[in-house]
Write a structure and sequence with these properties.
Elements lengths: L1 H22 L4 E4 L2 E4 L30 E6 L2 E6 L5 E6 L5 H4 L1
Antiparallel strand pairs: 1-2, 3-4, 4-5
Amino acid sequence: MKKLTALLFLLMSAVSYAKSSTLYDVDHFRANYHEYRIGDKAPDLLFSAGYNITAWKIRHLPAPSKNTFWSYMEGTYVLVDKHDHKISRAISSDIFYVKMLD
């Protein structure tokens, strides 16, 4: 019974997490007086050492896929491809506070 309860808890947590992360997805945003959309090339500045977010878990962001990394552009977390420099996902920084509001 304990194993079943633990399994149900994990499943509910995963569903809740997935739901909460997609609620904050955005398809466009502004940064540095420029409008960005998914698929646009990210500014070169994001590829300097200080812009790679390694603590993505505490920000409630999903794990970056291979050859991508999370960065931040004026109120928006962006998932950027390391090779073609394109933005593949954008999430409002409000996701950081999601657990505080529950």
